[in-house]
TrEMBL record:
Pfam assignment, any one: Chalcone
Classification via InterPro entries: Chalcone_isomerase, Chalcone_isomerase_3-sand, Chalcone_isomerase_bundle_sf, Chalcone_isomerase_sf
One BP term from GO: fatty acid metabolic process
Gene Ontology molecular function terms on file: fatty acid binding; intramolecular lyase activity
Source organism of this protein record: Picea sitchensis
Chalcone isomerase domain span: 96-289
Any one annotated GO CC term: chloroplast stroma
Family, similarity comment: Belongs to the chalcone isomerase family.
SUPFAM superfamilies with a match to the protein in the record: Chalcone isomerase (SSF54626)
Protein's name according to its UniProt entry: Chalcone-flavonone isomerase family protein
Length: 292
C-alpha cells in the first residue's frame, strides 16, 4: 500500500542526469510524495538533474490520481518515462529495455499504444536468468470493448480470465514485442515457447499442427543475439504474424500463423491463469484499467 513520505531531491546543474548514483549537490529540496512499490524509491544520497526531478515529481504526484482524472487515451504506466528526440519511451526496470509508447508493426494498419511491460525469466541449472523483456501494444479503441470493467482497478482485473479473454477477442490489433537481453539460438527460444504453448492447445488437429510447424520453422537455424526484436502481431483473433529483426525494426512479417487455437494459446501463455511473465500481465492489467 502506498505510504506518505518525504522525498529529498538533489538538484544538479545538468538537465540530463537521471543517474541514481552518489552525486554531491549543494542544494536539496523536500517534496511530499506518495511512493508505491511500482515507483522509484529515492533517498538522501540519490541525485537527479533539475528538469528530470521535476518530471519524476510530477509523475509521483499524479500516480495516485483516480481513473476519472486520467485523460482519455493516455496510458498510466507506473514507470519512469523519458524522451529521446520526439520519441517517448518507457523503461522496463528489471532489464532496462526501452519500449516506445507507440509504434507501427509489420502488417498492421494503425499505430498501437503500449499497455504494459514485463520480463521473462528462465531457470538454468539452479539460477533464474532474465531472457527477454516484453511489452504489449494495443489499438486504444479496445477500451470500447472493455466497458464492462470500467472503474475496476488493475489489481481487480489482473486475475480475471474473462477480462483477458475479452482483450484477446476484441476485434482490434494487438502486438507483443519481445526484446532479447541475452544471446540464444532459435531452436532454444522456440523450445521454451513451445513448452508453454503446446499444453494450452485444446486441439491438435492438422490445422494446428501446420501452424506449429510454420511457427517452428520461423526460428529454426536463427542466431538470436541480444537486442533481437520479435513481434507477435494478432491482426485478429484467428491470424497472427511473426516478425524477427536483429536491428529492432522489422519491416515485414516472416510468417503468418493462421490458426485461432494457436493464436489464443499463445496469448494465454502471457495473459492466462499461469502466465510465463507475471510482471507483464500485472503491468498490462494496470495500463488497461487506467483507460476504461
Amino acid at each position: 500500500m502506498a505510504t506518505a513520505a518525504t522525498v529529498v531531491v538533489a538538484v544538479c546543474s545538468s538537465p540530463h542526469v537521471i543517474n541514481i548514483q552518489n552525486i554531491n549537490c549543494s542544494r536539496h529540496y523536500s517534496y511530499p510524495a506518495r511512493i508505491s512499490a511500482h515507483n522509484l524509491v529515492i533517498n538522501n544520497n540519490r541525485s537527479f538533474g533539475s528538469s528530470a526531478s521535476d518530471l519524476l515529481i510530477r509523475r509521483w504526484k499524479g500516480a495516485e490520481r483516480t481513473k476519472k482524472e486520467q485523460p482519455n487515451g493516455v496510458w498510466a504506466l507506473p514507470r519512469a518515462k523519458a524522451t529521446v528526440g520526439t520519441e517517448d519511451f518507457i523503461v522496463e526496470p528489471a532489464t532496462n529495455v526501452k519500449f516506445l509508447t507507440s509504434l507501427n508493426v509489420p502488417g498492421g494498419s494503425s499505430s498501437l499504444s503500449l499497455a504494459g511491460t514485463g520480463f521473462r525469466e528462465k531457470k538454468i541449472a539452479i539460477i533464474s536468468v532474465k531472457v527477454y523483456a516484453a511489452g504489449l501494444y494495443v489499438d486504444t479503441t479496445i477500451k470500447s470493448y472493455l466497458a464492462a470493467w470500467s472503474g475496476k482497478l488493475g489489481s481487480q482485473i489482473e486475475q480475471d480470465n474473462l477480462f483477458f479473454n475479452a482483450v484477446f477477442e476484441a476485434p482490434v490489433e494487438k502486438s507483443l514485442q519481445i526484446v532479447l537481453v541475452r544471446d540464444i539460438d532459435g531452436e532454444t527460444f522456440w523450445g521454451a515457447l513451445d513448452e508453454a504453448l503446446s499444453p494450452r492447445l485444446k486441439t491438435t488437429g492438422a490445422a494446428e499442427q501446420k501452424a506449429l510447424d510454420i511457427f517452428r520453422e520461423t526460428f529454426r537455424g536463427k542466431s538470436l543475439k541480444r537486442g533481437t526484436t520479435i513481434y507477435l502481431n494478432w491482426l485478429k483473433s484467428s491470424i497472427m504474424l511473426v516478425s524477427i529483426s536483429s536491428d529492432g525494426s522489422p519491416s515485414v512479417a516472416d510468417a503468418t500463423i493462421d490458426s485461432p487455437a494457436v493464436a489464443f494459446a499463445l496469448f494465454d501463455v502471457y495473459f492466462g491463469s499461469h502466465p510465463v511473465s507475471p510482471p507483464l500481465k500485472k503491468s498490462v492489467a494496470s495500463g488497461l484499467a487506467s483507460i476504461i
